Fold this sequence. Notes:
398 residues; MFS_trans_sf; membrane; MFS_Exporter; MFS
Amino acid sequence: MSGALSWPFLRLYLLTLLYFSANAILNVIIPLRGESLGASSTVIGLVMGAYMFTTMFFRPWAGQIIQKHGPIRILRIILILNGLALILYTFTGLGGYFVARALQGVSTAFFSMALQIGIIDALPEKDRSQGISYYSLFSYIPGIAGPVLALGLWNAGGMDYFSIFMIGIAMITGLFGYSVRMDKTKEPGIDTTQDKTGQKFGMLASFGELIRNPFLFKCSVIMLISSIVFGAITAFIPLYAPQLNHGNAGVFLMIQAAVVVIARIALRKKIPSDGTWHSSFMMGTMLLLTLAAACVGLSIQAGVILFYLGAGLIGIAQAIVYPTLTTYLSFVLPQTNRNVLIGLFIATADLGVSLGGVVMGPVADLFSFSWMYLICAVLGALMIIFAYDRRGLLSAMR
């Protein structure tokens, strides 16, 4: 095998699978544990949102620090930090969970930036979308079995078993991560060693590019709103599903993750990798997102079939939106500060997932989970309009 499926990249994908496997369990255990301790949806949303909020905060600096100290050294440090966070879950309460989520967020900021930028830099243009899709795919594979496993641990009253799983995942991920090697690549024609102070200034000044750069602005807004919906699904489905007859959060999250995996494989060559903005493609993706949130919100009246249909639709939307936007930006952003700008874009995805818990938690407390998901559907509908490129400017301006 060659290209995005060559052995060096497969090792990175396997490390990604191991790294994110804990989250598939934590995304179910934390809301259930919080509810059992009497926490409100707002508090649970804050704990869940702490992960992506800290990831978002550290993401723009991750690329620069990795370039300065090298990806292997940073990777080993963050695997230790991630291991400490997972162990923290085994002996603390909700307050400790908040700290652990924040520590996970810091390590994820550096982990994902190192791997994704490495994939973009190492693969030829025609394989970029596949490489990004495979990275994202392997981060979702644990979500197929993880939620069902988490519910099994919870229903068995097995917090002791949960602790064993967290310690085991921390050790296996750390050992495998220490054996991974990454070759440092260099963009042709760009001197990555000179003018380090100028690079720092460019990183800080690049925050303004979120508004000034039309490519980055449109992609970031779409990613932000999409991630709010994804975050609300992840944070509150374990609490919403028991309100439905025959509703099961584990089955919902398993269907969602399985559809993401299948769609990533089936659609990997359909995701545009030509640097052109495809309005109809993105509008269709936002339509799927809207329908998914509406199905989940209406299922409290319409029944569990609509609930699980929403899981499938949200899985397809998740499989498409992130690799499509990331691949597009890898073509249209200037190479001189492309890594920092992509880091800012990914930070908007992190912020959206965090807001899905932090903002939508109070909405659920004020109204209901059903109304909260219908509000998510309205946000998705607005993105259908926003994704339209009326005059083809996003392609013509390249």
